[in-house]
Amino acid sequence: MAKPEVRVHFIGDGDYFSPVVAALADEYAIIRDPKNPEFLFFCCVGTSHRRYDCVKIQYVGENMTPDFNWCDYAVGYDYIEFEDRYIRNSRNMRCFPWCAEHVKLSKERDFIVAEAESKTGFCNFIYSNAKSADPIRMEFFEKLSKYKQVDSGGRCCNNIGYFVKDKIEWQRRYKFSIAFENSAKSGYTTEKIIEPLVAHTIPIYWGDPRVCEEFNVNRFINYADYPCMDAVIDRVRELDNDHDQYLNMLSQPWFPDTAPVPVDQKFPSPELLAFVRHIFAQGPIAAKRIPAYGFMQAEKRRVMQESFLGKMRHSAKKRKAELKAALARFLR
After folding, report:
1. Are 273 and 79 in contact (CB under 8 A)?
2. Predicted TM-score (pTM) of this structure
């Protein structure tokens, strides 16, 4: 019996779903069709998805909430429920398998003792985004640097003379890692805390107020647990000067007992696979969730018209500038 065909297309980070779709190749004949897809996978950046009329599945990898007026389904960080249209990008969906081996190593006492002894640096800071991030991140970096030098290996405040290529290996040299999200939003816990854990360093974390539901608060310094920035720095200073306390924190399990982790789980996770399978199983007509008629369609037409006119104005402005520059060159 022939497998049912599905025509798909991926835009930008919508390619996050590519392994999921590939995992369903035993059940469906997957056809990549950028012109006339039945199922479009896209991310939270850009607007090119608006010109497609098909089932739309969005991956929100930033601190944004999915706009279900523009997508039928979404994967995001928010703790929300919306019928069959949404699944949260939980810790288990994004942690494994790339850090599974390090989770196992973190449970070996001899390994952790050796890691603690091998640290040659105090604290690291590796970021490139300084413009749109919450100013608290820079403020903390500058204030902690008054206690001891914090090595910065990214484009932001680089003070080591080069840009770090292997982030995990570089972080592994340090006792602490500044692990501040771009912003504080419930559910928005990213690789900022995962990477320092994989590097077997202690994250100094700021961001998701619900981070302790997924990560063991005894394994990192949680900014939210302290009354002010000075108190956080005092805790860092305390651990820095007490090897036994530092080793004790480094030895703690990554995850709380209330949130067990399937260490050997592969990507895509069963939850994500079931989410996309359910969408495909309905077919391209029944899977639609955005209303085909009504006010929203009129609103979409208005937005598309404004976008088109905006591009026309930008193009005209650019052309005018080019003609002005050409005239100036001619008159020289």
Report:
1. no
2. 0.85
CATH superfamily of 98-250: Glycosyl transferase family 10, C-terminal domain (3.40.50.11660)
Using the predicted structure, report yes or no on whether residue 260 has a pLDDT greater than 70.
Answer: no
In the predicted structure, residue 94 carries a pLDDT above the cut 90: no
**Predicted confidence (pLDDT) at residue 278 exceeds the cutoff of 70:** yes
Cα 8–Cα 74–Cα 259 angle in degrees, nearest 5: 125
Question: Which of the four pLDDT bands, split at 50, 70 and 90, describes residue 194?
Answer: very high
Bridge partners of 30? 6
Structure tokens at 57: 């599945």
Tell the CATH topology of 5-92+268-290. Rossmann fold (3.40.50)
More confident residue, 199 or 302: 199
Same fold, 5-92+268-290 and 98-250: yes
Output phi, psi for 174, to 5 deg: -105, 150
Nearest-CA neighbor of 126 among 75, 174, 77, 73? 174
What is the layout of strands, in order, in the sheet containing 221-222? 150-152, 121-125, 174-180, 202-206, 221-222
Cβ proximity of 68 and 192 under 8 Å: no
Q: What percent of the chain has pLDDT over 70?
A: 91
Sorted by where each begins, the domain ranges of the chain are: 5-92+268-290, 98-250
Burial class of 241 by CB neighbour count within 10 A (0 to 12, 13 to 18, 19+): exposed
Mean pLDDT of 176-197: 95
Residue 93 in this model has a pLDDT that exceeds 80: no
| Residues near 70 by beta carbon (within 8 Å), at least 6 away in sequence | 49, 50, 56, 58, 290
Token duo for residue 291: 């209303």
pLDDT value at residue 158: 93
Q: Which residues are CB-contacts of 281 (< 8 A; sequence separation ≥ 6)?
A: none
Q: Which residues, including other chains, have CB under 8 Å from residue 90's CB and lie 6 or more apart? A: 214, 271
